[in-house]
What we know:
The mean pLDDT is 91. The protein has helices at 37-45, 61-68, 80-83, 93-106, 120-148, 165-170, 175-206, 211-215, 223-233, 242-248, 286-301, 306-316, 321-342; strands at 4-11, 15-21, 27-34, 50-56, 74-78, 253-256, 261-264, 267-270, 276-280. By secondary structure, the chain is of the alpha/beta class. It folds into 3 domains: 4-106, 2-Layer Sandwich (Nucleotidyltransferase, domain 5), CATH 3.30.420; 120-206; 211-350, no CATH class. Strand 7 and strand 8 form a beta hairpin. The longest helix has 32 residues, at 175-206. The protein is globular. Helix 5 packs across helix 9 (223-233), helix 9 (223-233) packs antiparallel against helix 11 and helix 11 packs across helix 13 (321-342).
Amino acid sequence: MDGRKYIGMDVHQASISAAVRDANGKLVMESIFETKASTILEFVQGLHGTLWITFEEGTGAGWLYDLLKPHVAKVIVCDPRKNAVSKKRNKNDCIDARTLSELLRAGLLSPVYHGDTGVRTLKELARSYLSLTQDVTRVMNRLKGLHRSWGVRCAGRAIYARSHRGDWLEKLPEAGVRRRAQRLYEELDYLQPLRQQARKELIAESRKHPVCEFLREVPSLGPIRVALVIALIQTPHRFRTKRQLWTYSGLAVNTQVSGEYSFTGGELQRARKRPIPRGLNENHNHDLKNVFKGAAATAATALGGPFQDFYAALLAKGMRPTMARLTLARKIAAITLSIWKKGEHFDKEHLKPQAA
Length: 356
């Protein structure tokens, strides 16, 4: 324990500010060096003792994690949103590095998962597909926004069809506006084939993972959703319980309670106040939330499917449709985690009557 050193790094594109503390919390060293692999390793290898190191999640966090992991005892990539409370004061790069090193020594950091679980290629393909999907959606929205700004109604998808584009362009009175719309159509024509190719590559890569076969059996989890689930979760063993997966997926309900305990007759007793719900948690993986919400929306409308029966039973109990869909999304996430961990096939018995 005496030889342990805690290193906090404030990482930027060009430079890194580092602060080193010993086991007693004393600041023993500060340094600023280039954000370059050889320079970083030279700094780390010049330190003695058992090294613990931390830095915040960011653009280069994955690269830095893989670089440092073989050379130190422990690497923690921490959540910057949860560290923000500790930085509401004067700040600069050196102060941030000192704060990170102290939080690391005190064990007050919330780690962000990084690990090599054999899904690196799938993860990158998923990012490519999601980025292209966002780009296509953005161009489509701009096309509709452009027409609506000139009083042209354009509900549905007919505005994107190649066979009707001439008619839609004629509805725009100004020549400059028509040219702008034409450029957007050209951009859409370029992006859509790229998205289709990214989709094919993503599905093909996901099939290399044995768990894909089991997850495809879950109703409403199609090939794209299964591929995204594997890429975004990486390993189910990150989550000890389904509630941890719900929190990561943005499906957990935040609650607040004050004055939990009281003394009655000189004895400590828990108060009977119920926690007050405050909506879903905001700190989550948005892409994974979209997967499970989309799966729930599909399952709720699939006639004759097991999830549709589960959803209908919730509505019959008087639950609001929005809460019923949330409950269904949580159920799908829980079943996904269970099947993945156990390596078993989907069974309708997974849909037990207890609340998801």
